[in-house]
Design brief:
The protein has about 100 residues and is of the alpha+beta class. The chain has one domain (about 1-100): Ribosome hibernation promotion factor-like (Double Stranded RNA Binding Domain), CATH 3.30.160. It is about 40% helix and about 35% strand. The chain contains two helices and four strands; from the N terminus they run βαβββα. It has helices at about 15-30, 75-100; strands at about 1-10, 35-45, 55-65, 65-75. Strands 1-2-3-4 form a four-stranded mixed β-sheet, covered by helices on one side. Helix 1 (about 15-30) links the parallel strand 1 and strand 2 (about 35-45). The radius of gyration is 14 Å and the shape is elongated. It starts with a strand and ends with a helix.
């Protein structure tokens, strides 16, 4: 699986990149397709606010002719990343379950 990470309106630190990679490692276990491409964009959606939902995380997973998508906003960047991971995991499990039936 190929992973592309992009940040908008803030610098992507090695710690944040490592956190994203740690969280999406579960997809490697769920996916058997080597040609899957995961694009993740994390962003600070406001420049002057410091409270409220100021971070956004978006993921697009291209998988066997399908596009799985998740987008979440949160007060904490790590929380937004966790939410998109959970959302994509659910979508992948639904696809795997439908293939079994």
């Amino acid at each position: 699986m190929k992973i592309n990470i992009k940040s908008t309106n803030f610098e992507l630190t090695p710690a944040i990149a490592a956190y994203i990679k740690k969280k999406i490692n579960c997809f490697e276990k769920l996916l058997s397709e080597a040609d899957a491409v995961l694009d993740i964009e994390v962003a600070k959606i406001t420049r002057h606010h410091s409270k409220g939902k100021v971070f956004s995380a978006e993921a697009n997973l291209k998988l066997a002719g399908r596009l799985l998508r998740a987008e979440k906003k949160a007060e904490d960047l790590r929380a937004a990343i966790d939410e998109i991971k959970d959302c994509l995991s659910e979508q992948i499990k639904k696809i795997k379950d439908s293939r079994r039936n």
